[in-house]
Structure formats: C-alpha cells, structure tokens
Design goal:
It is globular, with a radius of gyration of 21 Å. The protein contains 15 helices and no strands.
Amino acid sequence: MTTTAPRTTAEERTAERTRAANPSPDGSPDRRPEQRPERRPALPPPRGDLSEAVADFLLGRSRTLPDSRATADADPYGDDLHLALHLAYELHYRGFDGVPEDTEWDPDLLRLRALLERRFEEALRDARGRSGGVREVFDALLTEPVDGRGASHFLLRHGTLEHLREYAVLRSVYQLREADPHLWVVPRLQGRAKAAMMTIQFDEYGCGRAEQMHARLFADLMDDLGLDSGYGHYLPLVGAPALAAVNLMSLFGLHRARRGALVGHFAALEVTSSPAASRIAAAMRRVGAGEAAVRFYDEHVEADAVHEQLVRRDVVGGLLADEPDLAEDVVFGVEATVLLEDALSDSVTRAWEAGTTALRAPLGDGLDPGPAPGPDGNPDSNPT
C-alpha cells in the first residue's frame, strides 16, 4: 500500500496550537479539540492467558489472577507476558478506558506484577555476558559498529515511507510519553546527579513550552506521516520486542532499589540516540516526509549530543560519587537496555529484509482498537 504523507499540515497545526495557547480577543479560552483532555486508550486484545486474565481483572470481570506457576512457565520475552506487564504498568501513567483509577494500587494486581517482573528480570540477568566496569560499558556504547546494521541504518539506506510509518508506530508506545518513566528516579537522587537529571529533563519537556515537549513533537511527527497520534492507539499492533524495551523503563523506574539501573538505562539512551536520530532524519528527508517528521529527529541530534556529556559526567558520575555501590546496577541498566534495543532492531530489520511488516498486522488492515468495553463487556456501557 502506498501512502502519501501530508505536506502542509505541520504549519497549519503549529499555527493552531499557537492560537490555542493564547486566549481569544474576548478573553475566553479557545476550546479547540487539542485542548480537551485526551481520552484514555482502550484495552487491547489479549495475547494469551496472562494478558487475558489481567484484562478481565481490570474490567471487573474476574478477581482471579495467575499464580507463580503460570508466570514461571511464561516466555520472558513473549507477547503474552509483556502485554500483561504493560497493562499493569500503564495504570501508573494514564490508565485505560473502563478501568477504575484505584486499580493502580490493587494488592492482587501488584502481586502478579511482581511475579511478571521477576520472570523478566531473571531472564535479563541470565542473558548477560561477562560485564566490564562503568567506563568500559560506556566506551562500548560510543563505538559505532563497522557493519552498519540495525533499523536506523536500514531506514537510511533502503527505508520507504511505509517503513518509517511502521517504525513510528513501534516507537509510539514510549515516545508519546517520552521522559515520563525516567522522572521516577528524580526523588531518589541527590545533589549533582539530581540537578543534572533535571537539566536534561527540562529539555525533554520543552523548556516550559508545551508545544516543544518531545512527546508533543513525536505526535506531530505521527500526524505528518498520516498516522493517528492518539496515546496508546497502536498498542494492538506493537509486538513483544518493542513492549519489552518500554517495560524495562517502568520496571526500573517504579522501584527505588533499581535507581542505579534506571540511571544506566537513561544514560544508554542518551549516549546512543544522536547518531541514530541523524540517520532517521536523513531517511525522512529522502522520502519527502513532512517538516514535523524531520524536526523530531533533528531535535534529538542536537539535544542528545549535549545530553551525552552531561549524563555521563554528572548524572552517572554524581550518582556514583554519592553511592559507589550502585556501579554494578548502572552497568546492568546499560546492558539490559542494549540487549532489548538490539533485539528490537534485529526483529524489525529481519521483517523488512524479508519484505514483511514489522508490526503484528500491517497498517491499514482494518485493525482498530475501537472503544474500550465496559465492565459487562459491552462497549456501549463504558462512560467517556
């Protein structure tokens, strides 16, 4: 299927957001749809017994959740486990339509989440090779592979508009809430590490301007590519490799004991982001994508090149000056991030090289999440 990205909508949307950010001449706010609270996403279809049990629990259809035997047998990198884990984590972000707010802290759900986390984290630790120290793992991150493989290299050399659209869909699960998981670590840092972390996060959140927030810029990118930029809209199409990479952030972020690993994860993303962003920006220009699609990656080329120095020197350096015993946790955070990002990149490029979609179903196949069902399973009973 050939899709042409809109060419003139970026300027129009920018003008609309500028007007919406300011009151109308009579002093009343401009009530455009973009200003209204965004509807929470619908629960996606389950992918196995674990995710089905969690979905039924969230919607009040059942109070029975899987036990430790069920989670011990689950594929730690599989669709079922990672959708179940994502559903539990999402309650700490925006939640889902039809799911009561107080389910976030339901003790039975938290017990299941802990079992899923244990299965996932044990697999990550088992997959580790022989580790070096903090300096060694960061030096390795700065070395670009000579073979130039991976999703960003494929997009630069061979990527079509459809490839770029698929890549945006895969990344949307995180990018539409970019930086949010890393904020969990801020109260757990002190001094130099906390100050440096907040300096970087201030950039991530647009330096005080909502229209410049990186999550907003990614929504603009999706709009320019002719995609739906609604939060969580494409979750049904996103497979386990992408969900695992996103779940890792919440696993580290929601546990104070894993603060060192979250700093390692954050640093790994900041150190490696700029070269990949440069390649994808070039791919966007080559296929004639819209201005906003290019802008998102141009912004990351510039910002992350600066952040890379700050995160290594002051966030990681400051944390380890205060808590040197967390060095091994930082290394684990880096290594787990690289492992999952490489797995995602490999799965995407294998699919594209084989001429198939990198999504669970091709875009435009009619898979639409639709409205979330209510507690009785009827979409019409769910309040909006």
